[in-house]
Amino acid sequence: MKGLINHDDIAKVLVSEEQIKTRIAELGAELRRDYAHLDGEIVLICILKGAVMFFADLARAMDLNLQMEFMGISSYGNERKTSGIVRITKDIDTSIMGKHVIIAEDIMDSGLTLSHLIQLLSSRNPASLKVCCLLDKPSRRETDITPDYCGFEIPNEFVVGYGLDYDGFLRNLPYVGVLKPSVYSGEE
Ligand code: IMP
Ligand code: MG
């Protein structure tokens, strides 16, 4: 993909910039209420790369003292279907032992990636561990997991924008849109 973003590749805007902004303010207030009184430090972990926009906006909306950490994971599988087998490509730089950990993730789909990640981070003995997802596709779940905090439940459609990619591109769309199937048909 080159040149200007072709907005015609987007079938429809599913979550607008304005809706994202409003909902993140609400999530921030919810987290502030739940975490402000806790003993122990808070660590907000960004799951690269998809959560980057959500993470940056959420951290500011929370208005709490916290550490911002980054974790790179790669799950084997293709662009639209994960195997759930997670490999860490970049680990966080701090210990989470005894701390309150919040994972910021772009989307929960099958749930396999996050359930692996939860297993892995739990073994480091945080005081608590919660998941905050911008988007949730509950109809796709293959394991018994739900996000503790969720921005929007969405139908089973492949979405891009606000961090979510197609083949590495379109993460920088300011909204979440449904990609036209014609863009990825011919694949697989
Ligand atoms: P899960 O393990 O199936 O829950 O996969 C979650 C990961 O798959 C997310 O972190 C995304 O990187 C990717 N993913 C799932 N659905 C979409 C989508 O609709 N658009 C872009 N990426 C997606
Ligand atoms: Mg991806």
Describe this protein's structure:
This protein has 188 residues and is α/β, with parallel strands linked by helices. It is 24% helix and 34% strand. It contains four helices and nine strands. It has helices at residues 17-35, 52-62, 112-122, 181-184, and strands spanning 10-15, 42-48, 67-78, 81-90, 100-108, 128-136, 149-153, 159-160, 176-179. The protein has a six-stranded mixed sheet with strand order 4-3-2-5-6-7, with helices on both faces. The protein has a three-stranded antiparallel sheet with strand order 1-9-8. Strand 3 (67-78) and strand 4 form a beta hairpin. Helix 1 crosses helix 2. It is globular, with a radius of gyration of 16 Å. The chain starts with 9 loop residues before the first strand and ends with a helix. Inosinic acid is lined by residues 50, 82, 84, 105-113, 158-160, 164.
